[in-house]
Every structure is written in structure tokens, then in C-alpha cells.
């Protein structure tokens, strides 16, 4: 079984389409949330995902930006993000907002080897908001894993790829599809190949996409130019 992991699309249709070309033959796609926010194609991204979730080969949970846009909660965001949240609320269709509201905060999946996974945008302690950065001490990851029973924890939110092995369990972040923040502008995703031995059956990948088009759409929408410029920097 090949399991594709994606997260943090952030309304970047061009990045999502480029990643999809690489992962569409996977047995299942698991998404750790934040379909929307920041970028200029929220309806297109949500409709892209809605269509594939109907095929039952795509599982997605709700991220903090999904939650903020769906329920009108923009407190705690920086000015750029807050402006984008409010723009999204104005331009998104009622159907797509309802879709975001119905996304679960947690998702469960078991692969063909009976290894179990839990999908959460942030962490089990704060599903929408906690950042699990790679440089945190192992003691912090051990504490996080004590909140769940599954073998592996799949997260997003930081936009930074990560594989943290704690004993026989793992915390995996595929990085950001639509707004990477590790200094590499290319869209990030990961593949778990269950035919390979643990813990090294996780492959991290990057793919180039039409970043100029994504940035142009942001500026034409009247969103903060910073949100367009950062796409070129991978931050």
C-alpha cells in the first residue's frame, strides 16, 4: 500500500494540482488540514478535495484556518492571515463553507499491515493550534504521544517536513503543499510505502509548481502582497 500525506494547501490550487499529479495513484491520500487561508483559490481547492473525498480514497481533517474561515473566528491571527480569513469568508460559497464546518478535527486510518494512524492538524493536546516543530526535545514528543493510542501521529500546521521516531511510534509531518516554510519554495508531500521496513518507509518529496500564477492571483485579489512574495522564499 502507498499512502500519500499532504497538508496545508492554503488555497494554492497550482501547488495542489502539481502534488496531485504525483500522488493520484496512491491507494489513499491523507490530508492534515488547512485547505484554505492565505491563497487566492479557496473555492477551487475545496471543490477539488470535495470531489476526491466522494471517491473514498481521500481523508481530510480540519485545520485552524479552515476552522477560522468556517466559523468566523479570526482572533489570534497575525494581520496578514486575518485579512485573508476575512477575504475568504466573503468569497467562498455557502456549500464550501459548510464543507469546512463538517470536516472532523481528528481522523483515523489503518493500513494493510494493521498499523494505525491518527490525523490531527496541530497535536492531540491542541488539535487546531499546537505547533510540533522538529527541534523540540524528544520528551515533548513522548508527552504528545501519551495522548493517543495509535502507532503513528500525522500532523501539519508547521509547514515543515518531519519524521520523529520515538521507540516504535512515529510523528510525521509531510510539510506544506501551498506555503512551505522550510526555505524550499516547492510544494511538499510524503509517501508511506508499507512494503518497506519501518521506520524508514516514509519518503519526503518536493515538486515545482506554477508559483508565479499562484502569486499573481493573490495580488490580483487584493490580498496582502507579502502572502505572494513569501511563496518564492519558502517561508
Structure description:
The chain is 34% helix and 20% strand. The chain has helices at residues 13-23, 42-53, 64-71, 79-91, 94-102, 138-145, 211-220, 225-233; strands spanning 2-6, 28-31, 58-60, 106-110, 116-120, 152-154, 162-166, 169-173, 187-193, 202-207. The longest helix is centred in the middle third of the chain and has 13 residues, at 79-91.
**Terminus-to-terminus distance:** 32 Å
Rough shape?
globular
H/E element sequence: EHEHEHHHEEHEEEEEHH
Number of domains: 1
Q: Which value, in Å, is the CA radius of gyration?
A: 17 Å
Question: Helix segment count?
Answer: 8
The CATH class is Alpha Beta
Q: Helices and strands: which structural class?
A: alpha/beta
Helix percentage: 25-40%
Please outline the major beta sheet. Answer: 5 strands, mixed
Task: Describe how the helices and strands are arranged.
Blueprint (H helix, E strand, L loop, with lengths): L1 E5 L6 H11 L4 E4 L10 H12 L4 E3 L3 H8 L7 H13 L2 H9 L3 E5 L5 E5 L17 H8 L6 E3 L7 E5 L2 E5 L13 E7 L8 E6 L3 H10 L4 H9 L2
Parallel strand pairs: 1-2, 2-3, 5-6, 6-8
Antiparallel strand pairs: 1-9, 4-5, 7-8, 9-10
Amino acid at each position: 500500500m502507498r499512502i500519500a500525506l499532504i497538508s496545508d494547501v492554503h488555497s494554492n490550487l497550482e501547488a495542489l494540482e502539481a502534488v496531485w499529479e504525483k500522488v493520484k495513484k496512491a491507494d489513499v491520500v491523507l490530508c492534515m488540514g488547512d485547505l484554505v487561508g492565505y491563497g487566492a483559490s479557496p473555492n477551487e481547492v475545496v471543490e477539488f478535495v470535495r470531489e476526491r473525498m466522494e471517491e473514498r480514497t481521500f481523508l481530510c481533517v480540519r485545520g485552524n484556518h479552515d476552522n477560522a474561515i468556517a466559523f468566523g473566528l479570526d482572533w489570534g491571527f497575525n494581520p496578514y492571515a486575518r485579512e485573508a480569513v476575512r477575504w475568504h469568508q466573503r468569497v467562498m460559497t455557502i456549500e464550501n463553507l459548510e464543507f469546512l464546518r463538517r470536516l472532523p478535527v481528528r481522523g483515523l486510518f489503518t493500513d494493510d499491515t494493521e498499523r494505525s494512524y491518527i490525523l490531527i492538524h496541530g497535536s492531540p493536546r491542541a488539535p487546531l493550534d499546537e505547533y510540533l516543530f522538529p527541534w523540540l526535545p524528544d520528551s515533548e514528543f513522548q508527552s504528545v504521544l501519551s495522548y493517543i493510542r495509535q502507532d503513528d501521529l500525522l500532523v501539519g500546521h508547521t509547514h515543515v517536513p518531519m519524521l520523529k521516531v520515538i521507540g516504535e511510534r512515529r510523528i510525521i509531518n509531510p510539510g506544506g503543499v501551498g506555503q512551505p516554510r522550510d526555505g524550499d519554495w516547492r510544494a511538499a508531500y510524503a509517501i508511506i510505502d508499507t512494503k518497506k521496513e519501518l521506520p524508514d518507509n516514509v519518503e519526503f518529496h518536493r515538486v515545482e509548481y506554477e508559483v508565479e500564477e499562484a502569486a499573481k492571483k493573490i495580488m490580483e485579489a487584493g490580498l496582502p502582497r507579502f502572502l505572494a512574495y513569501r511563496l518564492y522564499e519558502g517561508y
